[in-house]
Design brief:
Blueprint: H1 2-19, E1 23-27, H2 34-50, E2 54-58, H3 65-72, E3 80-85, H4 86-95, H5 103-106, E4 107-116, E5 118-122, H6 131-140, E6 146-149, H7 155-167, E7 172-175, H8 180-187, E8 193-197, H9 198-206, E9 211-215, E10 241-248, H10 253-268, H11 270-277, E11 282-283, H12 288-309
Parallel strand pairs: 1-2, 1-3, 6-7, 6-8
Antiparallel strand pairs: 3-10, 4-10, 4-11, 5-8, 5-9
Helix pairs in contact: 2-10, 4-12
Length: 315
C-alpha cells in the first residue's frame, strides 16, 4: 500500500523535473568508450546554451536495444534524447526477426555528431606490404583465412562478408567481445587478420605489434594518413560509422532544430574537437535532414549485403 500511495508523488516529481528542463542523454552502451565520452562532452557544452541540466545515462543491454526502446517509449517532451551509432539504428531492424523499432517512424532525427572508421589489421609476421599483397597471401594460404570481428551483427561482420564475396575467398569469421582480444589474437598468431575500429588498432599499429593495411573510410584517415583506403586498394567499399542524436516520435521539430544547433556549436569548439580527435572521433555536426540522408544511404547500401548473409537475431 505504501508503494502504491507513493506512485502519484513519483509521477508528480517526474513532471516537475521535465518542466524544469531536466534532460537525459541515453547512451545504450557501457561507460568509458568513445561514444560515452562524446555524450559527456556535448552534454557539458550544450547545458548552458539550453539553460538546462543534462545528464548521461548508460542504459545498456541487447546490443543497444534496451536504451533505444527506452527512448522510443519516452514522453516526447524533450526530457530524453538518444545518442547511438548509426549502425544500431539501421542494422538492428534488418537482423531482428521481428524489428523492435522503425527509425523513421519511432524517432525524430536531430543531428549527426561524429564519425569513426574501421580498419583491416594483420600481423606484421605476414609477408604483405599492402592490402593487395595480403589478398595474394590469403589465396596462397586457404587454411589461414580466419578473421576476428568485435561482435556478430556489426559493420565489421558484414564488411567481412562483403570482402569474402568480392575477393572470392572462403573465410571464417570469429566473433569477439570488443577489439582488444582481436588484436591480442592477431599478435599471438591465432587469427590471420581482424576488422575493428581504426582508433582501437592505432596504438598497436604504431608500436609495430599489428599492421593496419587498409582503412574503410572514403578518404584516408587523418589519424593514419599513411594507410590507403579499401577503395584505393581496389575494393569498392566505404564503411565508416558514426554517432547520431534522436528524439522520440511526436517530439517537436522545433525542439529537434534547437538541439541540433546546440550540438553543432558544441562540436565546433576547438577544445571539444581536440578531445574527440584524441580518441579517434571526427566531429561533424549537422541537422535533422543531414542525419536522415546519412541513415537512408547507409541502410540502402547494407540492406542487400545483410540479406545475402541470412544473418538474423531471434527475438
Amino acid at each position: 500500500m505504501s508503494g502504491c500511495l507513493g506512485l502519484p508523488l513519483l509521477a508528480h516529481a517526474g513532471e516537475a523535473l521535465a518542466q524544469a528542463g531536466l534532460s537525459k542523454i541515453i547512451f545504450p552502451f557501457a561507460a568509458g568508450a568513445g561514444g560515452d565520452t562524446l555524450c559527456r562532452l556535448i552534454a557539458q557544452e550544450m547545458a548552458p546554451a539550453l539553460q538546462r541540466t543534462i545528464v548521461v545515462e548508460n542504459r545498456t543491454g541487447a546490443d543497444g536495444l534496451i536504451g533505444i526502446k527506452g527512448v522510443k517509449s519516452a514522453n516526447p517532451d524533450g526530457s530524453m534524447v538518444l545518442v547511438t551509432t548509426g549502425p544500431t539504428m539501421y542494422l538492428l531492424p534488418m537482423v531482428e526477426t521481428i524489428p523492435s523499432f522503425d527509425a523513421a517512424k519511432d524517432f525524430v532525427p536531430v543531428s549527426l555528431l561524429a564519425r569513426f572508421e574501421f580498419a583491416v589489421v594483420i600481423s606484421p609476421a605476414i609477408e604483405a606490404a599492402d592490402f593487395k599483397g595480403f589478398v595474394a597471401w590469403l589465396k596462397a594460404h586457404p587454411d589461414k583465412t580466419s578473421f576476428g570481428v568485435p561482435s556478430n551483427g556489426t559493420i565489421p561482420h558484414f564488411m567481412g562478408s562483403k570482402l569474402e564475396k568480392d575477393l572470392g575467398i572462403a573465410m571464417t569469421r570469429v566473433p569477439y567481445r570488443g577489439s582488444a582480444p582481436i588484436l591480442n589474437d592477431i599478435i599471438g598468431g591465432h587469427i590471420s587478420f581482424g576488422i575493428t575500429t581504426l582508433a582501437d588498432a592505432l596504438p598497436q599499429h604504431r608500436a609495430k605489434g599489428v599492421k593496419i593495411i587498409a582503412a574503410s573510410s572514403a578518404e584516408r584517415s587523418p589519424f593514419a594518413p599513411e594507410v590507403p583506403t579499401l577503395k584505393e586498394s581496389g575494393i569498392d567499399l566505404v564503411a565508416d560509422a558514426w554517432y547520431g542524436m534522436w528524439l522520440p516520435a511526436g517530439s517537436s521539430p522545433e525542439l529537434a532544430r534547437k538541439l541540433g544547433a546546440a550540438a553543432s556549436v558544441a562540436l565546433a569548439k576547438p577544445e571539444v574537437k581536440e578531445k574527440l580527435t584524441a580518441i579517434g572521433l571526427i566531429p561533424v555536426g549537422s541537422n535533422a535532414e543531414g542525419l536522415t540522408k546519412e541513415l537512408a544511404a547507409n541502410a540502402a547500401f547494407w540492406q542487400p549485403v545483410v540479406k545475402a548473409t541470412g544473418y538474423k537475431i531471434e527475438n
